[in-house]
TrEMBL record:
Coiled coil: none annotated. SUPFAM superfamilies: DmpA/ArgJ-like. This is Aminopeptidase. Keywords: Aminopeptidase, Hydrolase, Protease. It comes from Paramesorhizobium deserti. GO terms for molecular function: aminopeptidase activity.
Length: 355
């Protein structure tokens, strides 16, 4: 069986949306800018919560830091105010400042009074360290890469070794960008969508579990892997159209950790594991003269199906980040092989075995 003909396992009993991606949540779009030039294997990825200006029309959001070995920017204000003011940007560790500056310039260009008559903007940039494959010291990502990723953002986007995921590694193989979604019938008669997007750069080969099956021992054997400590990270972005406030969204973000743990992660000492959740059900105006939304929030007693959808879509997105990745060679000849290149038809055999 050819590796590219092997379908990834479906996680859980909930159905996926039509794209099985975060963009199944209406108005959410994703774009990439990829650098793939010899020792430079990196890029930027942008998640837009809606098609307008998030500085003027903010969406409710909250984050959970599962393990704080990270250099993200903007989390403190998200925790305090419970809103997003910019798109969500993903990149490598040394490019956080550059991408944050691009977000600020973009906001000022669209809102000339930002930082003067209007409040300053809170950029939001998440990172993982792609320094094994990418010459991270070259700081190749510039403001144009962020703007390109923003400009091309759409409902259909690539996964795997693209954008911010270009140089990322997971479980000793190629990691990167992955996404998934789940449809959630609710007891209140509505149907909601939950979507996840991950920047996957974590895990040791021996830890890997796919759909509850221990792949790690065989992966270690095929990679001839050594017992190096975990030094990676993962960013998990959760979107939903369910009407939730920031408190409830923080509870959703925490459940992304359940999906992460199922793949074998123990949130290692050197891993920066951060989850952010936002809702597109309503926006909050910057201008105090505009009315605040009158939205009936989902009752807490009805939230469990959303928790299930978050865990399942997060796990599925991590699997997709591995499934869609290609083998990449970068800095100093370092190579990360794609999971399906390493495992080949053995994946299908393992998936068929009873648990």
């Amino acid at each position: 069986m050819k590796p590219d003909s092997i379908e990834p396992p479906h996680i859980g009993a909930l159905k996926a949306g039509p794209r099985n991606a975060i963009s199944d949540v209406a108005d959410v779009t994703v774009g990439h800018a990829t650098i793939a030039e010899g020792p430079l294997q990196t890029g930027a990825t942008v998640v837009r919560p809606h098609g307008g200006d998030p500085y003027r029309d903010r969406v409710p959001a909250a984050a959970t830091v599962l393990n704080g070995f990270g250099k993200s920017i903007g989390l403190m204000q998200v925790e305090e105010l419970g809103v997003l003011e910019t798109p969500i940007a993903l990149t490598n560790t040394f490019s956080v400042g550059t991408v944050a500056q691009a977000q600020i310039r973009q906001c000022v260009a669209a809102n000339p009074q930002c930082g003067r008559r209007l409040p300053t903007v809170n950029p939001l940039v998440f990172e993982c360290n792609d320094g094994y494959l990418n010459d991270i010291q070259a700081m190749a990502v510039n403001e144009e890469h962020y703007l390109t990723a923003y400009a091309v953002a759409g409902p259909d986007f690539m996964q795997g070794a693209v954008g911010a995921g270009r140089g990322m590694s997971s479980f000793g193989v190629k990691g990167g960008i992955g996404s998934a979604s789940r449809r959630v019938p609710s007891a209140d008669g509505a149907e909601y969508t939950v979507g996840a997007l991950v920047l996957s750069n974590f895990g040791r080969p021996q830890q890997l579990s796919l759909a509850g099956r221990a792949i790690g021992p065989m992966l270690v054997e095929r990679l001839a892997a050594t017992g190096e400590p975990e030094k990676g990270s993962i960013i998990l972005v959760i979107a939903t159209d369910a009407p939730l406030d920031a408190r409830q969204l923080r509870r959703l973000s925490l459940r992304a950790g359940a999906g992460l743990a199922r793949t074998g992660s123990v949130f290692g000492h050197g891993s920066g594991d951060i989850a952010l959740a936002f809702s597109t059900a309503y926006t909050l105006p910057l201008d105090p003269a505009r009315p605040m939304p009158n939205v009936a929030m989902l009752h807490d007693a009805l939230i469990d199906p959303l928790f299930q959808a978050v865990a399942d879509s997060a796990e599925q997105a991590i699997i997709h980040s591995l499934w869609h990745a290609e083998t990449v060679t970068g800095r100093d000849g370092h190579c990360r092989r794609a999971l399906l290149d390493v495992m080949g038809g053995h994946i299908a055999t393992l998936m068929e075995q009873p648990q």
